[in-house]
């Protein structure tokens, strides 16, 4: 088991102002609480029309109560499936703004494509049409968490992350779908097996009841599967339409060179850039701000990442070429390199010392028991 990576809450600014009261963006969920309940999904108690804050009349702070916490995203919320208690994510989407989101999500969630192990698109369990607004749909999905929390323990764990993401984007491209928004928070993981304790969706470093930090294993102990999410900007083409020339639509990462030099581009090379830039910003060579910490030990990825982020889109490799080159890189890494600890440049000496102690204990155990240095992917989220 590894230590928790988060110690302090990240309360949204609006939460501090409202002190636990419902934000305007939450009124939709309150107004549809009963309808969602009838569809088989139960929201937290704060969205019940008759809700009374549990901290009222007590000395307990509102932000230490499960019904006081704000969702992490305005358009998405956690819910419990009534049939089995599984925690899920409900996402509100507007057809006129994102006309292709549910179509593409369902395409990758339908057999035989959904059962392909190369498929790393978040599975969609159900699409709910809101009864009082033809424009709004609710997408029901598994509860995922950001791909790098908890932190990567070994180089081999990160190598498996790279492999799965290269494979996932290659799979999308092989079906003529461009993602168009491959950014940090759209790359998630299924952490159900990774965590010993169920964690709270709004404070994922805490237990579901907020009583303590949620305990977890390392990815080597409990391998995970990573997913590409959010198809709001994605587009699907016919094979004969490639390469397409699409008007520029900027997602969260607006740094692609073609965004600054043209009004239209082929989104497939831009996808390659976006995934390469994600790795560059978080693993290889970007100068980070004083508040951020850079991971060390990933120099072996620099040549491939440099080609993926080439200023000229025509000179970037395709995802087929990326996968092929990465496989050569992966096979060239020694077992000792793969088992090496992921160190951050700004880790404090004291924290680094204790992390190193627990790491070496795990490493000896893994070596003795022959645990693979590159984790085998976990069982994927099923499509209901």
Automatic annotation (TrEMBL):
SMART domains: S_TKc (SM00220)
Annotated GO MF terms: ATP binding; protein serine/threonine kinase activity
Entry-linked InterPro entries: Kinase-like_dom_sf, Prot_kinase_dom
Matches recorded under Pfam families: Pkinase
Boundaries of every Protein kinase domain copy: 1-329
Gene Ontology terms: biological process: mitotic DNA damage checkpoint signaling
GO cellular component: nucleus
The protein, known as: Protein kinase domain-containing protein
Native source organism of the sequence: Pleurotus ostreatus
């Amino acid at each position: 088991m590894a230590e928790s990576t988060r110690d302090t809450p990240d309360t949204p600014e609006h939460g501090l102002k409202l002190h636990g009261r419902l934000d305007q963006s939450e009124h939709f969920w309150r107004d549809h609480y009963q309808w969602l309940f009838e569809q088989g999904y139960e929201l937290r108690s704060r969205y019940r029309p008759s809700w009374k804050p549990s901290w009222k009349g007590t000395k307990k702070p509102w932000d230490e109560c499960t019904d006081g916490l704000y969702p992490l995203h305005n358009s998405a919320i956690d819910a419990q499936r009534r049939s089995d208690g599984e925690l899920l994510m409900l996402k509100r989407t507007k057809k006129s703004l994102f006309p292709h989101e549910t179509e593409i999500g369902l395409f990758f969630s339908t057999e035989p494509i959904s059962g392909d192990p190369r498929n790393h698109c978040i599975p969609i369990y159900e699409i709910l049409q809101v009864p009082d607004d033809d424009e709004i749909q609710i997408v029901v999905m598994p509860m995922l968490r950001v791909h790098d929390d908890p932190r990567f323990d070994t180089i081999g764990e990160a190598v498996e992350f790279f492999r799965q993401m290269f494979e996932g984007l290659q799979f999308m491209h092989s079906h003529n779908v461009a993602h168009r928004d491959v950014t940090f928070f759209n790359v998630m993981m299924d952490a159900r097996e990774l965590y010993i304790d169920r964690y709270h969706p709004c404070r994922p470093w805490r237990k579901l009841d907020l009583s303590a930090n949620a305990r977890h294993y390392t990815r080597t102990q409990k391998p995970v599967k990573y997913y590409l999410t959010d198809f709001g900007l994605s587009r699907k083409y016919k094979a004969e339409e490639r390469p397409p020339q699409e008007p520029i639509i900027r997602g969260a990462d607006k740094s692609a060179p073609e965004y600054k030099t043209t009004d239209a581009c082929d989104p497939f090379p831009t996808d390659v850039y976006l995934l390469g830039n994600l790795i560059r910003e978080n693993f290889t060579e970007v100068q980070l701000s004083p508040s951020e910490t850079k991971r060390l030990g990933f120099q072996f990825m620099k040549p491939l990442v440099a080609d993926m982020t080439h200023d000229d889109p025509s000179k970037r490799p395709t995802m087929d070429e990326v996968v092929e080159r990465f496989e050569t890189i992966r096979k060239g890494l020694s077992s000792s390199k793969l088992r090496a600890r992921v160190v951050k440049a700004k880790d404090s000496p004291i924290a680094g010392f204790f992390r190193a102690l627990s790491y070496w204990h795990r490493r000896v155990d893994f070596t003795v028991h022959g645990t693979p240095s590159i984790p085998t992917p976990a069982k994927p989220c099923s499509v209901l």
